[in-house]
Design goal:
There is one protein chain. The longest helix has 20 residues. The protein contains 15 helices and 12 strands. The protein has 2 domains: 254 residues, Type I PLP-dependent aspartate aminotransferase-like (Major domain) (Aspartate Aminotransferase, domain 2, 3-Layer(aba) Sandwich), CATH 3.40.640.10; 135 residues, Aspartate Aminotransferase, domain 1 (Alpha-Beta Complex). Strands 1-7-6-5-4-2-3 form a 7-stranded mixed β-sheet, sandwiched between helices. Strands 8-9-12-11-10 form a 5-stranded mixed β-sheet, covered by helices on one side. By secondary structure, it is of the alpha/beta class. It is globular, with a radius of gyration of 22 Å. Strand 2, helix 6 and strand 3 form a beta-alpha-beta unit.
Length: 396
């Protein structure tokens, strides 16, 4: 198998790069997949080499060939200056904030942020002496009105967690960079395949790799990609200083999942849209929040900036009791009730975000349910939900 030069590799399609990245059969005794390398201690051939740390790996916290293979795959689609890997998606969010902000700094965080990230900002980050201000996710270029002399970072998420607001990332980036402010983005919903965050100027691109990267609901992992070499140096230093090492088995399983990510998303995107369209016609549903669905809030921004969509979206039911919602969801046989998404299985999650929003109040009149469409047969999933709606009506 002929080795490709870096320029030849860069010209390949993302789908092909995901298949090839991090693979070198010559280094793996001819095996297609890189080996799982476990280890803490690295031994040196002599004293001189040890004193100058003349080795690719100096200790287990410096990485491993298995981790490097995963980093290569993530780099191949993020197209930034470098990637670090963390033991969970939440740690990817928190490390990005820790690497960028210092005591005395001010950060702006979208009010639609992933709730565990909000919890970190409200506790650990504030305890560090970092000022946090939440903002309306639809603010766009008016984000500049919220900047202070000490504003260091704007945290974005498009679409927003649970409520799926589409932020105008190019407008926010332009305003931020004019004032020397960094922009970070949780890009887990679209993945780098459907939103090229660095091309739009995002400085730190975060992925909860637990979701579409690993994809089999058996790994916790996250990644952060830095747009510039200077920022990657700062990010990588924070990663090393915190000793944020990932188990080699988790790195291997995530890499295995990434090989098929483009194929899975190609199946899950149309399935998610088809289900969203079907649900929009249901008499029990007040509205569907799916940015890729024509007529849904934020669709114009999605169409302008994104090249695809994942299969996660939210429905607002017409006003019914939570007892009726429970009757609907508890009897489902193909949809699990679970807090994650991005795997091969379909999930539902009832939620009410009004309790923890501080700047905006979503105008929901009925209960809300987040839905993830997996790889099951779509007609089977519709039949499961149809029976659920029958239970909802009976309990209303």
């Amino acid at each position: 198998m002929k080795k490709l030069s870096s320029s030849e590799f860069a010209r390949l399609d993302e789908r092909t790069r995901l298949v090839l990245a991090g693979r070198d059969p010559e280094d793996s005794y001819g095996f297609v997949n890189p080996p799982i390398v476990r280890g803490s201690t690295v031994v040196y051939p002599n004293t001189e080499d040890f004193l100058v740390r003349k080795a690719r790996y100096t200790y287990g916290t410096d990485g491993s060939p298995t981790l490097d293979a995963l980093v290569a795959a993530a780099n191949s689609i993020e197209k930034g200056a470098g990637v670090v890997v963390t033991p969970s998606g939440l740690l990817a969010c928190t490390l990005a904030l820790l690497a960028a902000a210092s005591s005395g700094d001010h950060v702006l965080v979208t009010d639609s942020v992933y709730r565990p990230t909000r919890n970190f900002c409200d506790t650990f980050l504030r305890r560090m002496g970092v000022e946090v201000t939440y903002y309306d996710p639809l603010v766009g270029s008016d984000i500049a009105k919220l900047f202070k002399p000490n504003t260091k970072l704007v945290w974005t998420e498009a679409p927003g967690s649970q409520t799926f607001e589409m932020q105008d990332i190019p407008a926010i980036v332009e305003a931020a960079h004019e004032h020397g402010v960094l922009v970070a983005m949780d890009n887990t919903w679209a993945t780098p395949l459907f939103f090229d965050s660095h091309r739009f100027g995002v400085d730190l691109s975060v992925q909860a790799g637990t979701k579409y990267y690993a994809a089999h609901s058996d790994v916790l992992i996250g990644t952060i990609s830095a747009r510039t070499p200077e920022l990657y140096k700062q990010l990588n230093a924070a990663w090393h200083q915190l000793g944020m090492m990932v188990a080699p088995e988790d790195a291997f399983l995530t890499l295995r999942g990434m090989r098929t990510m483009a194929i899975r998303l190609k199946e899950q995107m149309p399935a998610g849209l088809a289900m969203a369209e079907w649900l929009r016609e249901r008499p029990e549903v007040a509205r569907v929040l799916h940015p890729a669905l024509p007529g849904s809030p934020g669709h114009d921004i999605w169409k302008r900036d994104f090249t695809g969509a994942s299969s996660l979206f939210t429905i607002e039911l017409k006003p019914v009791s939570m007892k009726a919602v429970g009757a609907m969801l508890d009897g489902l046989t193909l949809f699990g009730i679970g807090a994650s998404w991005g795997g091969y299985e379909s999930l539902v999650l009832p939620f009410d975000c009004r309790a923890y929003r501080t700047v905006t109040t979503p105008n929901f009149k009925g209960p809300t349910v987040r839905i993830h469409i997996g790889l099951e047969n779509l007609e089977d999933l519709k039949a499961d939900l149809d029976a659920g709606f029958a239970r909802l009506r009976a309990a209303s």
